[in-house]
Amino acid sequence: MDLDRTPPAIANAAAEELRALNHPTLIERMPQALQQAEAGLETLYDRNEIRLAAADSSQKALAEAVSTVTVSLEYARNGLASVLRDLKSAAGPLSNMGGHWPDGEDEAADEA
Q1: CA proximity to 98, closest of 10, 4, 3, 23
Q2: CB hemisphere CA count around 108 (13 angstroms)
């Protein structure tokens, strides 16, 4: 972390980072990847092509494990959707912010 940066430089860097998050990124693609993983798991389960690598490898235990995974992935997708909404809400106001100019240059810029 560069502690020698000026407040305007820090604010501009923060705004840039937030804008970067709003572009297609891993976080935007993650819900789709989780949904695909869930669908793949359900397909394997329906075709009886997976098993548990545990002492209790009964069909009941497998069904419970698949259910736990699919419900957890759904919760994760919903959480990520909330994160994306919040990031987009923050990006607009933040993109219009900046730090103060040093030595009263703010007032000079306002007067011009």
Answers
A1: 10
A2: 6
- Both tokens of 96, joined, read 């219009």
CA–CA separation, 28 and 80 (whole Å): 8
CA 67 to CA 24: how far, in whole Å? 30
- Determine the 3-state secondary structure of 45 from DSSP: helix
pLDDT in tens, 65-83: 999 999 999 999 999 888 8
* 98: nearest Cα among 4, 1, 5: 5
Question: What's the rounded mean pLDDT across residues 82-89?
Answer: 86
Rg, C-alpha atoms of the chain: 24
pTM, rounded to two decimals:
0.60
Q: How far, rounded to the nearest angstrom, does the alpha carbon of residue 57 sit from its chain's CA centroid?
A: 34
Q: What is the DSSP string of 31-49?
A: HHHHHHHHHHHHHHHHTT-
Distance (Å, whole) CA 10 – CA 32: 33
